[in-house]
């Protein structure tokens, strides 16, 4: 793990939509279903508030504390959250610093060289560990998505009602911004549970191959 400065980059909805659609298409070889893409875009915008840090659209962790020692299996670049160093008493980060030392908040987050790599790694994580989130997203079921978001451990401290409301708000913003204009998307007929399980597997396999190829080229 190589620590780099945290850099937040403000991105338009259109830029994020194009990057996500390209990552999904790279994983499956075909245009992604429109509802799946729209819910996943709302999710990454919720995570990063339209300004992801170092291309980490899903806020994927790189390290955490276990029994008082920091542990990391991430070999790449990473940035430190504002609660990593001991904050001043009364600081808004003071409580999170203690939670981090207890192993319940990350001590570092993954950093990527570009947005494409960030989306690729995030989709690989969903396909490997959270296919239920892909299924719920494909059905446009933000309530189920929000429940799984917490119960599966992606964000155990989040409140499902708040997450669902945030996703609805961001989908409305995307509709108003005509986020998908000019981007080829597939029909929602691929939104059945079985098809989305296959989609998750396809995304995972193709993204892992793409990431390995990038690593060899570097």
What does this structure look like?
With 218 residues, the chain is an alpha+beta fold. It has one domain (2-217). Helices cover 53% and strands 8% of the residues. The protein contains eight helices and five strands; from the N terminus they run βααβββαβααααα. Strands 1-4-5-2-3 form a five-stranded mixed beta sheet, with no helix packed on it. Mean pLDDT is 86; it is low at 190-195 and 204-218.
Summed up:
With 218 residues, the protein is of the alpha+beta class.
Please specify the SSE layout and strand pairing.
Blueprint: E1 2-3, H1 13-28, H2 34-48, E2 61-66, E3 69-71, E4 77-79, H3 94-101, E5 108-110, H4 115-129, H5 131-139, H6 142-151, H7 160-176, H8 193-217
Parallel strand pairs: 1-4
Antiparallel strand pairs: 2-3, 2-5, 4-5
């Amino acid at each position: 793990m190589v620590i780099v400065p945290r850099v937040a980059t403000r991105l338009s909805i259109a830029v994020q939509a194009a990057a996500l659609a390209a990552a999904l298409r790279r994983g499956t070889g075909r245009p992604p279903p429109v509802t799946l893409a729209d819910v996943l875009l709302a999710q990454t915008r919720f995570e990063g508030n339209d300004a992801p840090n170092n291309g980490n659209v899903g806020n994927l962790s790189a390290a955490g504390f276990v029994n008082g020692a920091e542990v990391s299996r991430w070999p790449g670049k990473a940035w430190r959250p504002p609660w990593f160093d001991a904050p001043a008493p009364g600081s808004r980060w003071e409580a999170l610093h203690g939670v981090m030392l207890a192993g319940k908040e990350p001590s570092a987050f993954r950093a990527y060289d570009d947005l494409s790599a960030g989306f690729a790694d995030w989709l690989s994580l969903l396909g490997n560990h959270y296919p239920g989130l892909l299924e719920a997203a494909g059905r446009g079921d933000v309530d189920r998505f929000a429940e799984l978001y917490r119960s599966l451990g992606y964000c155990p401290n989040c409140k499902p009602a708040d997450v669902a409301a945030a996703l609805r708000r961001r989908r409305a913003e995307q509709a108003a911004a005509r986020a998908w204009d000019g981007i080829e998307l597939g029909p929602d007929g691929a939104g059945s549970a079985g098809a989305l399980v296959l989609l998750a597997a396809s995304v995972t396999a193709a993204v892992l191959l793409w990431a390995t190829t990038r690593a060899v080229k570097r």
